[in-house]
Amino acid sequence: MSSRMDNKSYLVQMNGNGVHGKTTLNGKTLSGTGVNGKGVHGNGIHHVSVNGSLYPTKAKSRRQRWEVKPSEMANNTLNPIRAIVDGMKITPNPDKPMIALSIGDPTVFGNLPTDDAVLQAMKDAIDSQKYNGYAPSVGYLKSRQAVANFYSCPEAPLEAEDVILTSGCSQAIDLAISVLCNPGDNILVPCPGFSLYKTLAVSMGIKVKLYNLLPEKSWEIDLQHMESLIDERTSCLIITNPSNPCGSVFSKEHLQKILKVASRHCVPILADEIYTDMVFPGCSCPSMASLSSDVPILSCGGLAKRWLVPGWRLGWIQIHDRNDIFGSQIRQGLVKLTQRILGACTIVQGALEGILNNTSQSFYNNTISFLKSNSEICFNELSTIPGLNPVMPSGAMYLMVGIDMDHFPNFKNDVDFTERLVTEQSVFCLPASAFEYPNFFRIVVTVPGEMMVEACVRIREFCQCHYRPRSRDSNDLDQ
């Protein structure tokens, strides 16, 4: 009989505090408080098997048909770039080869290879066979120390414990938002700005407030507008410097003004610094942390852009908290969040020290020189086209161009303009509506130089075909 009892279960009457009074088991009366009500969700009748497992006795209603729905998080996840681009009618002119100035990937055309030292570091990591297993969720200690050593400065010192390695800068941004914000909170995001911030935040139930950048001031922040958006539920201020999509680089003085606003309202900063050091000669780009005396900062970066390897997916968070405002809780929160997935590729982590220490300065210089040259070509050419207003960048890989829509009555908006540019000239620029900034478009300046020249020639031809003077301008000419 005992051998058959292992598979039987018996009724136990329960209340919220456990089992009380008499309980019948195989015809015998038992008593005691062996089951805690909290473990079985309060009052009710439950089965207790001989081995102690719990099963509800009341049969639940069976589903009559399949009905599997996506989660609210999935439904609330939207990439604005994909939403706009996927809706465009992209039909290039068959007589002209396509020139895509829309993709923020410097490797697309093959003209910007990474440094030989970067490749050698990867080869050495693979050949060592030391990095084929799991790494700690925050990254190998040696690799985190390499990042700390590379970026540490007297104004913003770093140790390995201040660095978390991530699967690209995108995961770094995801972790930073996740650790700082709760559903119902709001974050402040630049406009125009990188669309991922909103994609991540909205999917988590976090409200996004857009603060304006000013094209007439080389895309500086409208500080008065930004400050007016802060309230008691503002949990994070995102600063992108250098900027995607604008290519702007904030001055030291402007960064200090931003920090004063954050300090005044006790709002931490998420500094997206993936393009740090990708600035043109004569321009400096100090990190936010190096200028902060009290504002805690999570700085997000990675290998993708400066080392021209976006597909290697190696990013990091630098935790700058000299006044211990974040304290242990934010650090522990980040560690917990990294445990949801096991972070960055271990082979790239193994190569990281060699990449950071051995990449030649000439590689950095040549990349910047190329980006500056292409930016100047593009800016100088488009500046002479009636109806277009390019803004000269100071870094990163992008240039924004304003469209005076009054001069182009054939088009409803920037999406219509760029769509027709593809149809007629096979040049694809990204409409800035994707960055919630209508009547501009973004150009990526990583294409080969001759391709950039050809693209500008085609854009000129397109604009000349569709440009119309304003009626007032026509009257002025008649007089």
How does this structure look, described?
One of its GO terms (molecular function) is L-tyrosine-2-oxoglutarate transaminase activity. It holds the Pfam family Aminotran_1_2. Its EC number is 2.6.1.5. Its cofactor is pyridoxal 5'-phosphate. It catalyses: L-tyrosine + 2-oxoglutarate = 3-(4-hydroxyphenyl)pyruvate + L-glutamate. The structure is a single chain. By secondary structure, the chain is of the alpha/beta class. The chain folds into 2 domains: 75-109 and 362-466, Aspartate Aminotransferase, domain 1; 116-359, Aspartate Aminotransferase, domain 2 (3-Layer(aba) Sandwich), CATH 3.40.640. The protein has helices at 2-5, 72-75, 80-87, 116-128, 141-151, 168-180, 196-203, 223-228, 252-265, 288-291, 327-338, 346-358, 361-383, 414-425, 449-466, 471-478, and strands at residues 9-15, 18-19, 23-25, 28-30, 44-49, 54-56, 99-100, 163-166, 186-191, 207-214, 220-221, 234-240, 269-272, 297-302, 315-320, 388-391, 398-403, 427-428, 430-431, 440-444. It has an 8-stranded mixed sheet, sandwiched between helices. It has a 4-stranded antiparallel sheet with strand order 2-1-5-6, with no helix packed on it. A 4-stranded antiparallel sheet has the order 16-17-20-19. A hairpin with a 2-residue loop joins strand 3 (23-25) and strand 4. Helix 6 packs across helix 7 and helix 6 (168-180) packs across helix 11 (327-338). The longest helix is centred in the C-terminal third of the chain and has 23 residues, at 361-383. Mean pLDDT is 90; it is low at 1-27, 29-46 and 474-479.
